[in-house]
């Protein structure tokens, strides 16, 4: 029997279950078929292993610290070219981390300001970045603003609450944040 006469096996792709419509080039498929045919029972078991015990991916989320030191709010100016305005200190929330811990840690790491979370303001999927954001109202504890992360930020400063919309356009501020700032005043 020649290779052309041989029945075509169901393709097992490198991309696996994530892209079942993708088939490897014939030469690659031939190598995969050969490897499967010569595999030990233990190797075959691993090859056919289920993904049921794999932890699913978690969506990216961020914690934003709205640090209040009356009459001011702490802001950072990101270095990214697409960021034309200032923003609240923020950090990515990794699995096994809480938004509260990330907000406090990142605020200190980026700005030199030590703060404590007073409560959650709210959460949303950011309309521009698509990142799930948790907004936390934080109380100033100690420190002077300094740019401790010059790779990420251009500047750090306290901004008078009344001038906040001069630094961040009002249509880009999550409305409950404005309400929380007013209540904290």
User: Which descriptor suits the 3D outline?
Assistant: elongated
**What percentage of the residues does DSSP assign to strands (E)?**
25-35%
Order of helices and strands: HHEEEHEEEHH
Number of helices: 5
- Using only C-alpha atoms, the radius of gyration works out to 26 Å
**Overall mean confidence score, pLDDT:** 86
**Biggest pleated sheet:** 6 strands, mixed
Low-confidence stretches at least 5 residues in length (pLDDT < 50)? Answer: none
Overall CATH class of the largest domain:
Alpha Beta
What is the CATH superfamily classification of the largest domain? Nucleoside Triphosphate Pyrophosphohydrolase
Query: Termini separation (Å)?
Result: 85 Å
How many domains in all? Answer: 2
The CATH topology of the largest domain: Nucleoside Triphosphate Pyrophosphohydrolase
Structural class computed from helices and strand pairing:
alpha+beta
How many beta-strand runs?
6
What is the helix fraction of residues, given as a range?
10-25%
CATH architecture of the largest domain: Alpha-Beta Complex
